[in-house]
Amino acid sequence: MKHRIVVLGAGYAGANTAGRLAKRLHRDDVEITLVNGDPEFVERVRMHQLASGQDLRPRPLRDVFAGTGVQVRTARVTAVDVEGKTVELGGETLAYDTLVYALGSTIADAGVPGVAEHAHNVAGKEAALRLRARLSEVRPGGTVLIVGGGLTGIEAATEIAEVHPEMEVAVAARGRVGGWLSDKAQRHLRGALDRLGITVHEQVDITRIEANGVVTGAGGEIRAEVTVWTAGFTVHPIAAATTLKVSDTGRIVVDAGMRSVSHPDVYAVGDAAYAEGAGGGPLRMSCASANPMAWLAADVIAARLTGRKVPETTIGYSVQCISLGRRDGIIQRVTPDDQVTSTVFTGRTAARIKELICASAAWSISHPTMMMPSRRRHLAATGASGTRPLTRS
């Protein structure tokens, strides 16, 4: 009987994990199933581009993983039973021996009324396409308001402003837009916002979203034909509904090898995992976290199943990348524990670096068997569920 590995979610974290496992483990010994709600790999870091009206290259998952031994299932995960070791897929039950949970995140409304009813977002492909369709209806001179001054808000605002110069684009933030960046990066950001004609509302507390704009904590209004919510993300509630140990935000608590601290046959990667990085703080929700988490989880799983030494490493950061449209950007150098430094690249150079990083990440997903030499090993005779004794390579 083959050892059944089920990977839930085919974003950067899930797809990378599945591809790397396929290169580490012998396909005679394992059955790797990748479950995803969308039949294509979605470049989430480019959703602001899709929303603004740009077309992205399609990457069907079945084509991506053809010939790798990874079975792709297009289905929505509705529940996980970690005691019975099964996953519910809309009425169908899928059993596993090892589970990799990588279902990612979605927007968090922060308790603000009207977000679900009146605001758009760029947290996924369907949402980005809805925003794209709505933007095509906005009259010249109409206002598009981005709520949130973080990475997503900045990229969405600048992309929309660049592609739609006929629109009035504004950003509303509770604090300072890009306030965590170094002084040099903030100066460049201000120049880019001014160049694109983006109106900035800072130190503004949004208390309600309405059909024609937002209401602020001071009782004022910011009028807009379209409101885009980028003020925070949260994980899907599926993990919190199980007996897995989760953080107060619903993320699965994992050890240094991305393994659940409460259920040793479950691993979590990407936004869905609460893992400590360099400096002891939690890794932030980002592609920069998802990829190394996926690589580490796959290597740990493969090592445990084949009876080899489990790798030990601490995940840290090097840069934060921000696109400001297609021809401008910021590459902010950070310490391994994600603190900004004085080193910054800006302008076209930064835009090219950001594009190279994004393209490389997508290429690695689309070519799962080409990123590293294949060394598929047989499983060790450990007596683990679903594992049969075989000769090790």
TrEMBL record:
Pfam families: Pyr_redox_2
Keywords: FAD, Flavoprotein, Oxidoreductase
Molecular function in Gene Ontology: NAD(P)H dehydrogenase (quinone) activity
Keyword Flavoprotein (UniProt): yes
Cofactor: FAD
Top-rank taxon: Bacteria
GO biological process: aerobic electron transport chain
Domain FAD/NAD(P)-binding residues, every copy: 4-279
Family label: Belongs to the NADH dehydrogenase family.
PANTHER family per the UniProt record, alphabetical: 64 KDA MITOCHONDRIAL NADH DEHYDROGENASE (EUROFUNG) (PTHR42913:SF3), APOPTOSIS-INDUCING FACTOR 1 (PTHR42913)
Entry protein name: NADH dehydrogenase, FAD-containing subunit
Organism field: Nonomuraea wenchangensis
